[in-house]
Amino acid sequence: MIASTCLSLLFTVTIPQLDLAQDTTRQVTIDREAGQYLGHPTTVLLKDGKTILCVYPKGHGKGELVLKKSEDGGKTWSDRLPTPTSWETSKETPHIFPVTDQYGVDRLVLFSSLYPIRMSVSEDNGNDWSELTPIGKYGGIVGMSDMIETGVGQYTAFFHDDGRFITKDGTNTGLFHVYAVDSVDGGLTWSAPRVVAHLPDVHLCEPGLIRSPDGSKYAMLLRENSRKKNSHISFSKDNGKSWSTPIEMPRSLTGDRHQAVYATDGRLFITFRDTDQESSTLGDWVAWVGTFEDLEQGNVGEYRVRLSDNHHAWDCAYPGVELLPDGTIFTATYGHWDEGEQPYIRGIHLNLEELDGMLALDSRFHCYVLGRAQDGGLPHLGCEKSCCTDARQSGRKEYPACLGIHDTKSGKLLLIEATPAIESQVALLHELTGEHDRARQPFDALLLTHAHIGHYAGLIHLGREVASTTAIPTYVTKRMGDFLSNNAPWSQLVALNQIDLQVLPETDRLATSFTPIEGLEVEAFKVPHRDEFSDTVAFKIHGPQQTVLFVPDIDRFEGHERLLDRLLEGVDIAYIDATFYDGRELPGRDMTKIPHPMMVDTMQHLSQYASEHDGAIRFIHLNHTNPAFSDPVIQHDIKNRGFRVAQQGERVGL
Ligand SMILES: [Zn+2]
Ligand SMILES: [Zn+2]
Ligand SMILES: [Zn+2]
Question: Where are the domains of the chain?
Answer without folding.
Answer: 365-653
